[in-house]
What does this fold into?
Amino acid sequence: NALGHFISVGKELTGFDMRLFHDQRYLKPYKENEYPIAVLVKERVFVKIDLKEAVAELKATGNKLCSRLGKCTLNLFPDKVVPPMHLLINDYGRAADSTVKFNTTTTTADEIKFSFEVKNLKNNWAVYLHCYVNAYLCER
It folds into this structure.
């Protein structure tokens, strides 16, 4: 009887698209009707945050978007991140959880890829992944 959790994606990203993928190749995202995804404790979850839409909108205005990953948490609420149940990535975009791995080999300037290992979150079977992207205008 393996322990596991159901993970969904939080709702706070605008202009950005966050998806969970089946494996480290990032070729096959989970479809909307597959959420929440079922994962076992110690199984890796693969995350991609796509910034292409926001980058394209700013390029059309002659501006350039600079961005960095902010805080990522797991918690019990789909639209809130207070209080976070488990911190994966801190406000500065650094791993706060020892299992977080950033994929830098296939990541482009307009996307962020990382993965993490699911931990036993006690009796909280359904959790939401929330990530913030710190985006700002930078020099052209």
About this structure: The two ends are 55 Å apart (CA to CA). Residues 71 and 91 are 4 Å apart (CA to CA).
